[in-house]
Amino acid sequence: MKSTSVDPAYLRSRIARLLTRIDEGLDPEARARAEQKIEKFRAALDGFHRRNFDHGSRTPIPGMPVWATPEVVTGGFATGRYVAGGALEPHERSLLEALGEAPVGGARRALNEHFVGDPGFGELLELLESGRFEIAVPEEGALLTVAWLANNGHADDARSLTEQIAPFFDRLRFYPIPREQALHDGPGVHVQTVGETIESLRRIAPNRRVLQQKTAVEVWIPFYDRVVGLFLETVDDGWPCRRFPADWNARANKLLGDYHGLRLNHGAWARITSAKSHPGQLLRLLAISVEEAGALSGPDVGRIRLILNRYVEKRGVPGSATWAAARQRQQRDVSAPSHYAIAGLLASRLGQWPRAQAIEDVNTVLGPVSMEEFVTTGLSGTVSVPATLVRKVRRCVNLPVDELVALRLITSGEALARCLPQISSGIRALGIRDPHLRRLHAAIYRAFRRRRSLLLTNLEAQVRIEEVPWIASIERLRRDGAAENEAALQTLRNVSRLALTSFPHALLPNKLLQELRALADSANLDIPLLDELAADIFMGEFSPKFVSAACRAAELLKGTLYAKYYGIDYEAVRNAAKVEQAKVWARRPPSTFATLCASRAGVGLGGCRPAINGMVIEQQQILTTQNLAVLFSSLRLIDAIGDQLGDMARHCFSWICRRQQVATVDRRARLKMIKNTAYGWRQMIFYLSLLDDREVAGFLDWAANHLRRQGSSFQYRFAPAFEGLVRASRGEAIESAPADGIPVRRFLGWSNTRHWLLDEAIGR
Length: 764
Fold this sequence. Notes:
The protein is mostly helical. Among the domains are: 9-82, no CATH class; 202-206 and 338-398, no CATH class; 208-335, no CATH class; 527-635, no CATH class; 639-758, no CATH class. It contains 35 helices and four strands. Helix 5 (118-130) crosses helix 6 (142-151) and helix 32 runs parallel beside helix 34.
């Protein structure tokens, strides 16, 4: 069953990179995480060798249904395990102990069968009513759905659902995680749960240099002061070692003994172990003077005199006001609590909340230190929490999503996508009347959105939420209404606006597109949103929705700067669409649009080289605008962000200039940079195409000045791309001859030869 279209080389390269990182040296926690990843990648690779995984399929593991949540590693490869399976979780072991019976047919089967029996059924109903449950993976909501259906007059549906999942009782858990409190169900969203934030705080390690400085000030410098003070007692007429008090030797011996004890308890101090430092020299000379009376030579005494004089000149005599002020300053410098100590305090405070949810107010965690906390941590008073730690805590605070973006807690479209299910789950559940079922539906929805996408080939689609049997049972009870449709539409507009204005240079990531599709479905809108395709598994075909998106782009952009810059014949696009539609009706595989993209790229279809595939995919993105045109036309975004388009274009240009000048010697990283900046360039031109000629001219003047402020090497390399934009703005062909010695280039991200932006000198 091994897929012939998927190359296992990616898995081998990931394993090799992780092994290299381990060889280079990692701390124990990082090493453990790397070893866990290696084990998962090896499990996925094993499926290739044994030929029992169908990588590229919606059901990569034979015998398992499409709705079962597979464990997926980076790249979309299944490991052969399932997230709702594997070793028993702590709450499962606790329940087994409480049942007190030896499981027949396996522990997980026994637990599933417990919940379809009378005692377990009652427990599920109590959890439904109280809301004190968590669903981490969609399967954990199945038996809660069965319980609700059976208790609310839908016995046949409950029976049918149980029959569908019963064959997997021995492998998967279909019951929820019990919690002491109901989870948050308010309007705000959070970036992390309390538990995730606690873990991030606990990963903060003590700063070794800060600890060494603190030990030096609190332990070793006072010790050095004592050594200096002891020698100062021997000074007579400006020279040390002239007179010794009666108990001087005894006190010197005790001081040397203290030194060994301090070193044993606190480790060595570099300055006192150095033969060249004043503390190190003075301690060595003290040991010589105690070991044998009169053993110090004239040069030794002269050295002691020099060290003492330098000490007194700099700090004053020990016990003097000057000396005390200097030591107090040092104490103040190291007396502030360390990041490590404060992080521990914050983690302890967060431990009062349920780990699976968030908090409502960051100030509840940042208050003064209580007496109980002082006893356990040694911290006192009003702790000044560093901004970096405040930021970590804010990640688990419920806030409006646009505020999370403004605070830079959400810094990418991917991060925005991870937060959105907290909003869209509530909107999706609006049509469900029963509040308990509505809460259950929202919890399962959020868990489903945490599924990792599989690597798919042959135009297969990711599993849809409606294909999950227990979700389908609930969906049949949901009633669409105007309120739900309007809420979904408003959220879709707001999220699209937020993503485009906050990250105007970046493609909308596939995870975010999943959420936008769900919102569009809830709003009863037909929007052909397009996932970014992977060049290494592209099969030379595009589904019909790509053609539909290209037609919408043609309606919006015909005759604009975008069409002129990329040389797009939108009549050819429409003709390709007509042929595609005819082929679809005739049940023949569509290829006209793919052929058009390949022709524009100057390559043929059917190859297996990722670079050639990438060139074809990039032309598809150019013709469709990769979701920009369909969102602007379907949601009337020009009304919402039309006045921000100029700023968005300037953001793109300045971001491109920065990224292009990041120094890196890694060829793969440089190629990725060129690809991403070309995508940002395309989005910039789209925004400019919606502006009038005066605004475009103003942008070009600004961009020319911005480019002149960049490094001379980058200016030289990037001038052909900028000249191409200028020419297109004047209606001139980019393909025409160079002007004033400057070549003209259309900036594209993919090439099957060495990319011209990799050369230091253009035209060589």
